[in-house]
Design a protein that fits this description.
The structure holds two protein chains of two kinds. Chain A is α+β, with helices and mostly antiparallel strands. Chain A contains eight helices and eleven strands. The longest helix of chain A has about 35 residues. In chain B, α2 packs across α3. By secondary structure, chain B is mostly helical. Chain B has eight helices and no strands. The chains are: A alpha+beta, B mainly alpha. Chains A and B meet through α2, α3, α5 and α6 of A and α4, α5, α7 and α8 of B.
Chain lengths: ~350, ~200
């Protein structure tokens, strides 16, 4: 072990050009005559390139690396591959991270914006256990699957509850006519999408927060805010009931809102439970799904992953993001959209900015 | 209009260069001859073991290159001659792996890496990313898992992760590293091929 450390140190010095001519010749001689040493040298080289790519070298090493190591064209290619691998792994990690975010977001334990660190901690914990004891790791994996199924059932139940009320509602007045996305979504108490298009059935418009209570303890079902551990301050429901109404807005790339009363802001009344942001796609690349991040004041508010593109007769392809209303404060927001191809490549797409006006 | 540059002339071993090489090996011409034959035989044996197609040809190229650069290095290099031959042979072998049919002579006084001049194909970042993604997908499941996990972290986290991976796979840490290196080398080959074919088409 100690011998290998010495060898690695020498190889590192060799790669950084710190050896004398005679020392260098001896290293190269050994690389030619000893295949295992040659492979060790390649592994040390890969490690060195990665350290440079991750900015882990000391300033002196970095200088040597740039002046000596990168003098070789094939070493520059090695660095490009290392940087590409770094980008690839980062995008993989981001996708995996985001993929877990929505399911955690509906967990009471994960409210308050701690979803990502929580999942990371869980994954590291499982990873460390799995590394030490396979059976224990498998047990945790099984528990995780069961937990996922329960979460999935809970989400399914929530979605069903959200769909059912409009169908079950005994509203004496006839429903409003179908409205396009330009119709002010909160006018006449109607959501813009409740009678047309994909996903229209999910929009629980027209009920104005009178959804029947379906859960023990009186908490109305289908309340995204309720499932996230309670509403945030500043958005009290008007009559002591949990906000449930769903409103939709079309965000235009680069700024602007269709569906808002002022044309540039998303107006959210106190009885609104969910705000659907419809994002028309400018770049219709070959993406299998999309990722959206909602940011405000330079900080991530929520990530939404595995978003499909839907076809809107008027807007063309759109991505729909369902944002719990209690997440939105009276300030400016930006939605950054990323297209993700089937093979995992990502591309940043034009972003959408909007202001929220709380009423 | 300027004339095109004359074609680069290939260096040929002259009688004078060969005599200088023998003198460097040993002042006694007979002993020098013996040492020369020993070095050549060992070079052929090693190139054969490395599964090179024409080991004798590579051994001769090695000797030619040493003879060519000897005038520039003879005053600076204070070590034994044999290691110097094998040092040059290492670069001949590296060239062989990259361009087995078209070896070039060095421009510099030592077995400098710049002798391995080749166009930098991988400077198209978008193409590189695309090829990397394809090549990672083309790896076998276990290899892909190793490459995706092994290079995921840096610093202390990396050390911890590698230990866990080695334990999980039931192999030593050093072997895991060599395994990852081998996969990465094959990935590099795949990427280079992919970039080349994409550049052609």
């Amino acid at each position: 072990m100690k011998e290998q450390l010495v060898e690695e140190t020498e190889l590192r010095r060799y790669l950084l050009g710190e050896l004398t001519l005679e020392e260098r010749v001896l290293v190269e001689e050994r690389m030619f005559l000893d295949s295992a040493y040659m492979q060790l040298a390649r592994a040390v080289k890969d490690g060195l390139v990665d350290e440079y790519a991750h900015q882990d070298l000391t300033p002196a090493e970095r200088e040597q690396f740039e002046s000596h190591f990168l003098a070789r064209p094939e070493h520059r290619d090695d660095l490009r591959i290392a940087q590409a691998l770094k980008r690839y792994l980062a995008s993989e990690a981001a996708s995996a991270e985001a993929a877990t975010a929505p399911s955690v977001a509906v967990s009471p334990a994960a409210s308050g914006g701690n979803a990502r660190p929580f999942t990371k901690r869980v994954r590291e914990f499982l990873s460390s256990l799995f590394g030490r004891r396979a059976i224990l790791g498998l047990s945790f994996a099984a528990a995780l699957i069961i937990l996922s199924v329960i979460t999935w059932l809970a989400v399914g139940s929530w979605r069903l509850q959200e769909i059912r009320p409009p169908l079950q509602a005994q509203d004496p007045t006839p429903p409003p006519p179908a409205q396009g996305p330009q119709q002010p979504p909160e006018s006449a108490g109607a959501a813009p999408d409740n009678s047309r298009g994909p996903g229209g059935g999910e929009v629980a418009g027209g009920q104005d927060g009178v959804r029947p209570s379906t859960t023990p303890g009186g908490r109305p079902g289908g309340d995204p805010a309720g499932r996230q551990g309670g509403r945030q301050q500043g958005t009290p429901p008007p009559t002591g009931q949990t906000p449930t109404r769903v409103v939709a807005f079309v965000l235009l790339p680069g700024g602007g809102v269709r569906g808002g009363e002022r044309g540039e802001s998303v107006s959210v009344a106190a009885d609104v439970g969910t705000v659907v942001l419809r994002l028309p796609l400018v770049d219709e690349g070959d993406y299998s799904h999309y990722r959206a991040t909602l940011e405000t004041r330079g900080r991530l508010a929520r990530a939404f992953d595995r978003l499909p593109a839907e076809v809107d007769p008027e807007l063309g392809s759109v991505v729909q993001v369902r944002v719990p209303a209690d997440l939105l404060r009276g300030r400016r927001y930006q939605v950054k959209l990323t297209g993700i191809t089937a093979d995992g490549r990502t591309r940043n797409l034009p972003s959408y900015t909007f202001a929220v006006e709380r009423r | 209009m300027k004339d095109p540059p004359p074609p680069k002339q290939e260096w040929a071993l002259t009688g004078e260069a060969f005599e200088r090489l023998l003198s460097w090996l040993d002042p006694d011409r007979e002993r020098a001859g013996v040492r020369y034959e020993e070095i050549r035989a060992r070079l052929i044996a090693r190139f054969t073991r490395l599964r090179c197609v024409e080991p004798e040809d590579l051994a001769n190229k090695t000797i030619d290159r040493v003879a060519q650069i000897l005038p520039k290095v003879i005053d600076r290099y204070k070590g034994r001659p044999e290691p110097y031959f094998y040092s040059v042979a290492y670069f001949i072998y590296e060239e062989y792996l990259k361009k087995p049919t078209d070896l070039t002579l060095p421009e510099t006084d030592l077995p400098q890496p710049d002798s391995l001049k080749s166009p930098e194909l991988l400077d198209n970042e978008e193409l590189l990313d695309s090829c990397l993604s394809k090549c990672v997908q083309s790896l076998s499941g276990p290899s892909r898992e190793i490459i995706l996990h092994y290079y995921r972290c840096q610093g202390r986290e990396k050390i911890r992760l590698h230990k866990e991976m080695a334990e999980r796979l039931g192999i030593k840490l050093e072997n895991l590293r060599l395994k990852a290196q081998r996969i990465r080398a094959s990935l590099r080959g795949c990427i280079t091929d992919c970039v080349k074919s994409s550049s052609v088409t």
